Structure formats: structure tokens, C-alpha cells
């Protein structure tokens, strides 16, 4: 979950979109308990997003984006409202690609 809303937000992306656009849409509830998607906010990353993952961290969540079929990855701070902020980027070892991530418990 991003931000303070008690309702969910959904992230959308089109794999291999050359502009790397990622959209977020909040879920809204009207007075008669009908749920619908709110207006989409788009963020552009400038390279194709192959995979989008949410990494849960204490106090907030971050986005892990894998770009260009695993040729690069970035971890972004994201509050659900403002543009994501790059916290770390990486390239895989020669001859390998990123395919995902597994959370690691801190000691």
C-alpha cells in the first residue's frame, strides 16, 4: 500500500512500452458502497519496463522495476502520489539478466 488511503491502489504497465510508463489508479468508494477505479496518474521511466514488483519495507513500500528484459533494475521510493525517486540502480553480471527479486529479512 502506498500513502494513507485505507483502500487499495493498483499499478499498471504495458511490458516493453518504449517510454516505460507506469500508471497508478486508486480504488474509490462512493456513498452506496460501489467501488471503482479513480483517475490514473502516469509516471515515465524512459526505458521499457519488463517487470514491476512492490518491495515491502518497514514504514513504506518501494518499487522494483526491471528494465529491457533484465538488462537493468532500479529500486524507487514511492508514496503513491509523487513521482518515484530512484534509490538504487544496478546492472546484472556479464551474460546474465535480472528476472525478479526475493525479499531478505534483516537481522
Shape: globular
Described by strand count, sense and barrel closure, the largest sheet is: 4 strands, antiparallel
In total, how many beta strands?
Answer: 8
Span from first to last CA? 24 Å
Portion in strands? over 45%
Task: Name a few traits of the molecule.
4-stranded antiparallel sheet; mainly beta; single chain; 107 residues
Structure explained in plain terms:
The structure is a single chain. By secondary structure, the chain is mostly beta strands. It is 0% helix and 47% strand. It has strands spanning 9-13, 21-29, 35-37, 41-44, 49-57, 60-67, 72-77, 85-90. Strands 1, 2, 3 and 4 form a four-stranded antiparallel beta sheet that branches. Strand 1 (9-13) and strand 2 form a beta hairpin.
How does the SSE layout of this entry go?
Elements: E1 9-13, E2 21-29, E3 35-37, E4 41-44, E5 49-57, E6 60-67, E7 72-77, E8 85-90
Antiparallel strand pairs: 1-2, 2-3, 2-4, 5-6, 6-7, 7-8
Amino acid at each position: 500500500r502506498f500513502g494513507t488511503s485505507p483502500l487499495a491502489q493498483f499499478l499498471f504497465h504495458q511490458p516493453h512500452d518504449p517510454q516505460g510508463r507506469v500508471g497508478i489508479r486508486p480504488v474509490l468508494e462512493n456513498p452506496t458502497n460501489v467501488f471503482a477505479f479513480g483517475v490514473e496518474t502516469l509516471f515515465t521511466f524512459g526505458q521499457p519496463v519488463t517487470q514491476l514488483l512492490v518491495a515491502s519495507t518497514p514504514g513504506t513500500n518501494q518499487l522494483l522495476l526491471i528494465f529491457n528484459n533484465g538488462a537493468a533494475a532500479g529500486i524507487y521510493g514511492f508514496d503513491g502520489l509523487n513521482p518515484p525517486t530512484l534509490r538504487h540502480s544496478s546492472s546484472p553480471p556479464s551474460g546474465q539478466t535480472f528476472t525478479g527479486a526475493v525479499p531478505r529479512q534483516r537481522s
